[in-house]
Amino acid sequence: MPLEVVVPSRAESHDGLPRLDTTIAHNARVWDWWLGGKDNFEVDRVVGAHVQKLFPEIVAVARADREFLARVVRFLVDAGIRQFLDVGTGLPTADNTHSLAQTYAPESRVVYVDNDPLVLAHARALLTGGPEGATDYVDADVRDPDRILGAAAATLDFQKPVAVLMLGVLNFVPDDADALRSVRQLMDAVPVGSYLVVTHPTYELGGEANRQAMAYWNANAAPPIRARSGTAIRRLVEGLDILEPGLVSCSLWRTTPAASATAVPQYAVVAHKTSSRRSTPSARRSAVVGGDLLGCDDVTNPCVSQPAGPTMTGACEVEVKYRVGDLARLEAALAARGIVLSAPVVQDDQAYARVGWKYGQSKLGVPFVRLRTERGRCLLTVKTPVANEQSCVEHETEVADRDQMHAVVQQMGFYPTVRIRKTRRTAVVGPMSLCLDEVDGLGPFLEIERIIESGEAGEQVQAELHRFACTLMVPLVRTGGTYDSLIQAATSAEV
């Protein structure tokens, strides 16, 4: 039965704007109560207490979400971000986005977005920025990105990178298509170098008890809420580069070992916009089926300048690769620059070549396939070298069964060549991705990668990446080969 609480009814203000509705519990106020705040009513406390009885972890989730905000804002400021669009901010607490960002970088500019009357009232009274930066507030719904962007443009410069924060808000958008549209429209409006940050409740990560609590919430509070699986949340950030440690519990995202954090059933993901093209698995999948895997004849090459025409479905990734002579010295050089490497991830790759092609022959214009397993996921990648082995058009999609895909790839005219096993740590430096690999049988390597735009010359970008490597001032030996070529050469030399 829905909860019955006798409270004052909703009223309209003299100017027609809605006043607080205290006839029903509201998310922002209940969340405030879970965090120990005072901006809530009896109806919020009653509902909040019952939800907590059904799902005792909810208070830990609320606190972990706020602690994640503090860590991610510090990360973003360290990454050079000075503009923040915080969608679904909720009621102000001690550590808000603007207070955190402007503590680390006083010139930071922050725009909050919410449509709760109590949140708006507090925002007007409390959310003031420092003299060097700016803080503003937009009265809008997450499903109205046009209004959000139009109003936020008075404070934010959308020609410069922006961090779009969507913490605990997409769970109030029940339709997947609406949620995806909001995310994409916001991220399409910000430039390369921007970030998307999402937290979202889930029934995974031990959150099964949340089902009953959410059902109770949807009968007694507003707005309605839903959980999403990790797979569904990944779809919301398709086309962006997910940063390490990937999609994890918000309580485990880049926490220090000393914190001894335990996982709460609230996912967090931070993704980086490194290309102005949205290259989604669905688009990549159509490209693979449509021709790239079968010969690459009808796939546009984004590594070279193209005349006006259809949108490209592939992405062009260029890289430079180095043998590392002194791993400890390289790690120290990166740390001295404030470059923080992710936790290590084990990657297990199987490389494939087209039947008839052999090592020693040119790879240019020839499609190659890779099956990669990491963190329990399997990715199928098709790479076609263009300017050289380290400048490739790539298409990638996730597959459900590695063994079945292994058989399918061979049926399509490819044969397995080399198995590559490595441990990888990564970091993002501006538009570049750094990969510090320890490859079985080869030793440590440094890869520096970048997705390039149509019209950019791959070899010119490689020269820029090489110049960055030289500034590290550590022993590095550049190699023009890929890992499969290097392993095959080493194996042949042993024979």
Largest sheet composition: 8 strands, mixed
Q: Which fold name is given in CATH as the topology of the largest domain? A: Rossmann fold
CATH superfamily of the largest domain: Vaccinia Virus protein VP39
CATH architecture descriptor name of the largest domain = 3-Layer(aba) Sandwich
- From the alpha-carbon coordinates, what is the Rg to the nearest angstrom? 25 Å
Low-confidence stretches: 1-18, 277-313
Mean pLDDT: 82
Structural class: alpha+beta
Number of DSSP strand runs: 19
Q: Number of helical segments? A: 14
CATH class of the largest domain: Alpha Beta
Beta content: 25-35%
Shape: globular
Q: Measure the end-to-end span.
A: 76 Å
Helix fraction, binned, reads 25-40%
Query: How many discrete structural domains?
Result: 2
